[in-house]
Protein 1
Amino acid sequence: MPFLLGPSTILLVLAAAPPRDSGDIFHATLGETGARTAEVSTQELREILAARSATVFDSRPHLEYAMGHIPGAVNVAAKPGVEMAKYVSDVAEISRVLGNRK
């Protein structure tokens, strides 16, 4: 049976990872070796969001999203009654948000 990590465990692991030496929190990344995707610092994400060159999707429940999220993030929470463990992003909703910017 696979072992699933909860969000608090993942957060703890991320908090324990040493940041790359880059001066301050706004320019630091985790510096993960062998990462399959590019890392983005806080400042780079701010610039990306300001330029509207990417969309950040937040799949947490509406209440969690309302309590705090990345400014400009779009909430694509599960439909009412769907367990988080069974939730898959609603492709139609994401397509609607992105329009022709896929």
Protein 2
Amino acid sequence: MAQQQAGKKSPKSKKVREGGRGLLLEWDAISPWRQEGSEHIRTGYRFVVDCPVASCHALANFKGSRRETASWEDCLWSWTYLHNETVSIFSHIVGALLFLSLPYHIFSTEIPPRYTVATLADIVVCSIYFGGVAVCFTLSTIFHTFMSHSPTVYARGMQLDFQGILLLMWGSTVPLAHYSFGEPPCRGGGGGGGGNHLHTALSSSSSTAMTMYGLATTILAGLCSLATFHPGIGGPRLGHARAVLFAAFGLGSFLVPVGHGIWTYGWAEESRRVGLPWIGLTVACNGFGVLVYAFKLPEKWFPKVFDLFGASHQIMHVMVVFAALAYSQAVLAAFDYRHSEGSPVGC
């Protein structure tokens, strides 16, 4: 009799299953504030609350009967078992650690080391980029770790996540403007006084363009940041609106200065100045990630199959890391060309 009863599972109890050292819920067993925007991920939700649960039956009847507010410790403990945020959390933990250590590696391992020729401007623009990526990935990790805590923490964490994304995007424009329009110092006297005057004129024009693009992208980033606080853009179900907003900011901040550089210097020279092939790979990685996230693929086509591994948000996280690495190569290519003998100096 006991075996027969044990073999019978109520529809409610099927909403819960054990997962590692935690408990996982299905989508219809979580509270409404956690359901918004995640309807295609059907399983693998963390159950982390500040009150004990006596049984799976009680757990299945949890929604609406107990306060779903997790402790901070429970959220951190979820790092120790598998759930549908595990890939999102650890992909950006790895990314943050990587970009914190990457500058030391790339500036000290070349022969001669890059730091021996780096100017203060090089150090500043590269630090802004690598630091922005590391901060973005750190804020993303914090959000995905504590998003199950409470509705308030979820909303605040989402806003932090948005600001991290915008910081990464803005930080990427800084080396782009610097290496595209910042003229290298005159390194020789091969051109005489006329060459020096020409170099001075080019440097002045390029410096103006660099300053203008720097101000424009900073203002755009600030406006996008403010826009994410608007209910029509910042809500959980408004991923499409945010994707359009961030894509517009990214395209405007990159296509316009790159196009300006191509018009000024020509395709070949601009390609060498900013590492265009690597920027193209960056755009491809980010574009693919944004598309799968916007259309919720593949989980929309295959319910429950990709809940733990391979969901659109996870794919986007991984592609953002790949894109950041590709852009790092673009920055290094620009740095190396700036300090190479083949870089035109106009002198």
